[in-house]
């Protein structure tokens, strides 16, 4: 939800210290990192060089790959276990051949390195949007000092972002008025939604912005321009 990345290096170290007999197994969901992180989009585990430390990796065919479905990368033993005991897996409908062809095409783009420039552009956009949001937050904080209306949220409460730039293209923008802020963004052409309890705890209401490689810097810097995030 926050767009942060699990501290996998620390988790692996803790797992080895705790399970000294080697009976600790790590499962990593790479849904949001597939296509965006690692060499040729192989994911965050590959980027950190932890392939030999992870028992199961889940890679989606959706999101960055723009298809549907997912795959588990695991050992033959785990594969046989899932085939025999994972009822939802066994009774899942077989994927259509057009879907498989689309997945193959997406992976061919990754393997050929055609997406590496897009991934680099996405990281640049992450920094640009974060800088823009911080600047807006500072202006709102300045306006808070002059706010007099006690019945309405003060300007500084309308938008709060972490000062640390996120590594992923998912931004959580905390807000006392997430639905109003989302509606304003939608009128400006931004496809965002307000997220409220019980999806998030009370006091952690927010809007969630997801960048994609097709965005441009002008779209980020000019909210009035019709854009899609």
TrEMBL record:
Belongs to the class-II pyridoxal-phosphate-dependent aminotransferase family. BioF subfamily. It holds the Pfam family Aminotran_1_2. This is Aminotransferase class I/classII large domain-containing protein. Its cofactor is pyridoxal 5'-phosphate. The lineage of its organism: Eukaryota, Fungi, Dikarya, Ascomycota, Pezizomycotina. GO terms for biological process: biotin biosynthetic process. Keywords: Pyridoxal phosphate, Transferase. Residues 1-221 form the Aminotransferase class I/classII large domain. It comes from Hortaea werneckii. GO terms for molecular function: pyridoxal phosphate binding; transferase activity. It comes from the Eukaryota.
């Amino acid at each position: 939800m926050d767009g942060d990345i699990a501290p996998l290096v620390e988790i692996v170290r803790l797992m080895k210290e705790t399970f000294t007999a080697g009976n600790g197994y790590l499962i990593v969901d790479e849904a949001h990192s597939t296509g965006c992180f690692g060499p040729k989009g192989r994911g965050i585990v590959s980027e950190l060089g932890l392939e030999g430390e992870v028992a199961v990796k889940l890679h989606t065919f959706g999101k960055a790959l723009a298809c549907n479905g997912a795959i588990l990368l695991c050992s033959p033993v785990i594969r046989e276990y899932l085939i025999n005991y994972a009822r939802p897996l066994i009774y899942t409908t077989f994927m259509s051949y057009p879907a498989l062809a689309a997945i193959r095409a997406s992976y061919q783009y990754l393997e050929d390195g055609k997406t590496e420039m897009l991934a680099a552009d996405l990281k640049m956009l992450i920094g640009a949007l974060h800088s823009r949001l911080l600047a807006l937050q500072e202006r709102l904080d300045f306006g808070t000092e002059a706010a007099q209306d006690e019945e309405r949220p003060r300007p500084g409460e309308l938008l709060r972002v972490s000062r640390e730039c996120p590594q992923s293209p998912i931004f959580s923008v905390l807000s006392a008025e997430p639905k109003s802020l989302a509606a304003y963004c939608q009128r400006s052409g931004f496809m965002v939604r307000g997220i409220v309890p019980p999806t998030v705890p009370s006091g952690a209401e927010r809007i969630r912005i997801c960048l994609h490689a097709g965005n441009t810097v002008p779209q980020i810097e000019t909210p009035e321009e019709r854009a899609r995030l």
